[in-house]
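To make the argument concrete, we let one protein speak, a sequence paired with a row of C-alpha cells, as a model reads it:
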Amino acid sequence: MLPNLRKDRPIGLIAGKGNFPRLLARAATDQGFRVEAFAIERVTDPELAEDVSAIHWLHLGQFGRLIEICHERRVETLAMAGAVPHTAIFRYRGFDPRSLKILSRAANLKADSILGAVTAELAREHIEVLDSTLFLRSLMPKRGLLTPRRRLSQSEKQDIRFGMPIAKEIGRLDIGQSVAVKDRAVVAVESLEGTDAMIQRAGRLAGPGCVICKVAKPEQDSRFDVPVIGLETVRAMVRASATVLAIEAGATLFFQQEEALRLAHGNRIAIFAGVVATAGPA
C-alpha cells in the first residue's frame, strides 16, 4: 500500500549510482507521480534526466542547496536510491555549512548514522523521506531457487546455512551486507568497497567456488538502505568464478532479473532467495 502521497506535489529523488534511481523514477511516474531528481556530479547517471520531470545537479555536500530547491519546488517527500561512495566522506573537502552540521550530529561515520542524521535534518524542514522500495516491491524475490536448471549441491547448501547468519551479524554491526564463504569458512566481508569489489577479492583469495551471501540488516531502514543485486553482481561472480548467490527473500531488490538470470544460467551460477534464521536459511 502506498502512503497518502499528494499527486499535485512532486516526489524528490536523491540519486546515487546505478540503475536504482532510474527504475524508481519510472515506477513512480507509471503510478502517476511527478519525480524531480537531485543528481550528484560525477556520481549520478546523466541518463536519469530521461526518466524524471526535472533534474537538479548538485555537488556532493551541497545539502543546504538541496533544501532550498525542495522548498522552491514544493517537494515535501523524498526518496533516496543508488549508492554514493562512502569513501567520498574522507576525500571531499567542499561540504557546505549545513552538511558539516549534519556530519557533526552523526554518532559516527557509519552509513546508517550519517543517513539517519540526514533524515532527521530533512524532517526538521518538514520533508518526509520515503521507503525506497515503495514502488519496486515486485522486484523483491520470494523464497526459492531462482535458477531451477542449476540445483544447489549439499556443500553449497551448507555454505549458505553457514554464511547467511554471519552476513546478518555483519549487517547488525553496520559493516556491510554481504560475506563470501567457501567450505564453511569466511573468505571475505563486505565493507566500504561494496559487494561487487568484495566478490572480486574473494575470487583472488580463495579461487573458484565461493558462495556469496547478501542480506538485509536487522531492523533495516528501507528509506535509505536496502540490499540490491543485479546484472553487475552476476558479472562480478562470473569474473571471480563464484558459484552461488544467496539473498534474503522478500528483502532484496533484484534489478535486471531476466538478463542476470540468463547470465547465471550460462555460467552455472545458482541464485537462491532464502529466509535467515540462527540455523541458516530455511
Q: What stands out?
A: The domain at 11-129 is CATH 3.40.50.20 (Rossmann fold). The radius of gyration is 19 Å. The chain has two domains: 11-129, 140-274. The CA atoms of residues 140 and 251 lie 6 Å apart.
